[in-house]
Amino acid sequence: xxxxxxxxxxxxxxxxxxxxxxxxxxxxxxxxxxxxxxxxxxxxxxxxxxxxxxxxxxxxxxxxxxxxxxxxxxxxxxxxxxxxxxxxxxxxxxxxxxxxxxxxxxxxxxxxxxxxxxxxxxxxxxxxxxxxxxxxxxxxxxxxxxxxxxxxxxxxxxxxxxxxxxxxxxxxxxxxxxxxxxxxxxxxxxxxxxxxxxxxxxxxxxxxxxxxxxxxxxxxxxxxxxxxxxxxxxxxxxxxxxxxxxxxxxxxxxxxxxxxxxxxxxxxxxxxxxxxxxxxxxxxxxxxxxxxxxxxxxxxxxxxxxxxxxxxxxxxxxxxxxxxxxxxxxxxxxxxxxxxxxxxxxxxxxxxxxxxxxxxxxxxxxxxxxxxxxxxxxxxxxxxxxxxxxxxxxxxxxxxxxxxxxxxxxxxxxxxxxxxxxxxxxxxxxxxxxxxxxxxxxxxxxxxxxxxxxxxxxxxxxxxxxxxxxxxxxxxxxxxxxxxxxxxxxxxxxxxxxxxxxxxxxxxxxxxxxxxxxxxxxxxxxxxxxxxxxxxxxxxxxxxxxxxxxxxxxxxxxxxxxxxxxxxxxxxxxxxxxxxxxxxxxxxxxxxxxxxx
Length: 597
What we know:
alpha/beta; four-stranded antiparallel beta sheet
């Protein structure tokens, strides 16, 4: 009878959508919460079955009284949800003190893609496969070394002459690393890796994060939204704030899907008082069909949230070019250039004398103010406001010569970089993409750091920057006669458990995942609460999960939960551990990179 009652109660509770997750699994914590509140709908549901009613209700003078404690004790028992999925979690230790991790109330961290779980093997954007994101609960005592600096490997110095080894890390007169850096790996962990050397050193951060629209170049899936997206961003913005100098600024480009959520988040991280503006960029002219316009307005703009680190933030006043209509007003020309006559509102004798000597003044009517020659070359342009309508791609997903879809024209990045930094300042982009930010920063003589975590071929962004070094035209920026020069250093976070994450997500069968489970238990760092031994019954349960609905997804999620997130990449403190095989050259370069300032 108990097993039958288990099954009947589980089946009944699953009819209430509040008590099941996206995979159709019963959420015990949700049921317990409603039971403590004596939820009327829950009570009605339990009363609808005679066996369940007699088990959890007491009859007193013709009235049925809900025995809350009995009900909660019953469903809290570790054997209540003893399907194969749950038995497996219990047997290998994916609960603490009899409670599943999701019921413990710890801080929830979200690790999209390379932060925790990634869909492996994608090297070409045109494959258009959905990236997989999982939300995972990590208790605070698990996050002990996650943000420690990581070992860097794969060092290459790129110059106009080709690839070279890296023998030293260059520093400026103040001891700050002066290299242009491109880092491949989890961008959250890479940002924390930069903290020691670049804390309060970065003048400008520009990022173009995933918009979570389903139409991004890498097609982030629908599970990466709402709270997940905000947690993803907050993790990174918190450390970005630490990296910014007191006179630094950050620009975050978004569309309407996440703009307003991100504004509230950035108010919290950077302070409402440090909000400078919302820049509205018209990225395209309207190319929507009349059919599409029948039900909604076309979406032709992105927004760029602009925040300062403090009141000290650098601001270089910028100007937009004049319109053709305005330029036509300068219809006169002499040896000095094009000009127009303008009335002088006020003037002094000295000023009149000066202008007269320069042949730049006239009186058409002695009863009116004089006119003076206003030369076009003496004007800077229209002072920049927050509406940018002069930089756009006709095609909003136009492909630059790097063969990479992007919504970031070089003119857009040049304007931002010139507005908020000076030559020699450090510019950071931790959603590197096709490296437009770094390419423009290079041409504008800024130092830059680019981080890319998506698992596609680094040749996409490396080749873009190699072309920049060689003076090849890679974008649309025409204001600089760029002829090439300079260099940059490429390196990667040294992977460990992250490599298993990639293999888990690229697995195409339950059998492959079972094989991986055996290998993971023997050769990787497991979470502290996981039993490394594999009883045959547990393995049988794991295989059985693969035969259920969404079985492979459940198996993949389970395997990712086993891995210690502190060992996604190799921590610097373990550089001498023989298990990681760090060579002498990497040890020397890491010692240089992490040298005390």
